[in-house]
Write a structure and sequence with these properties.
Largest sheet: 5 strands, parallel
Number of helices: 8
Protein name: Chloramphenicol phosphotransferase
InterPro entries: CPT (IPR012853), P-loop_NTPase (IPR027417)
Structural class: alpha/beta
Pfam family, one: CPT
CATH topology: Rossmann fold
Number of strands: 5
Length: 202
């Protein structure tokens, strides 16, 4: 019987360090690891529906929300498909429910992964570090009056709700390699993941 591929979902805000952890996993973990994260899905999304599943919290584009829900469902169906084929999957994503109305996407995605070896990892980073990284990477930082932009604050508040994880890491104190190795240790030593089951039962 073919072994099901392991699934690692890295959940956190933009610039929290998820992509670097995913890259380390791909380059260093045993076996084939496919990255089906938010950036890759956004590249496949037509301009008229951008930013797709990267839509930030705040309910700014209710017209896109039905499409975003379907994109998330399709992404998780793809994740499950790769796992059934015996291929490991790592996903960097930012789940939130800060839409114009509650879409409960995370729970719907958890339903898709029922029965799969799927680990939900919380990737944390203090907002002050996020701001420094935004300035370095995108040259986008504070508002003209020196405040943190509202969407950045909303990301920080909403992305870790309900906060149920199999493991949590902080990229302000750990390197991407250290975070990835903690994830590897969690998978190797157990116990089996329970976060998605808990979310399904909310």
């Amino acid at each position: 019987m073919k072994k099901t591929g392991t699934i690692i979902i890295l959940n956190g805000t933009p610039r929290s360090g998820k992509s670097s952890i995913a890259k380390f996993i791909q380059d260093n973990f045993k076996g084939v690891w496919m990255n089906l994260g938010v950036d890759h899905l956004m590249k496949m999304t037509p301009d008229a529906y951008q930013p797709g599943i990267g839509l930030r919290p705040g309910g700014e584009r209710p017209d896109l929300e039905p499409v975003i829900e379907r994109l998330y469902i399709a992404m998780y169906e793809s994740i499950a498909s790769f796992s059934r084929a015996g291929i490991n999957v790592v996903v960097d994503v930012g789940h939130h429910d800060g839409y114009s109305t509650s879409l409960d996407i995370l729970k719907k995605c958890a339903m898709i992964l029922e029965g799969y070896p799927a680990y939900l990892i919380g990737v944390h980073c203090p907002i002050e570090i996020i701001m420094k990284r935004r300035l370095t990477t995108w040259n986008i930082g504070y508002t003209p009056d020196g405040n943190i932009p509202k969407p950045v604050k909303l990301w920080q508040k909403l992305v870790h709700e309900p906060g149920i994880y199999d493991l949590e890491v902080d990229t302000s104190i750990l390197s991407s390699a250290e975070c990835a190795n903690l994830i590897r240790k969690r998978i190797k030593l157990g116990p089996m993941p329970t976060s998605f089951e808990e979310i399904r039962n909310l």
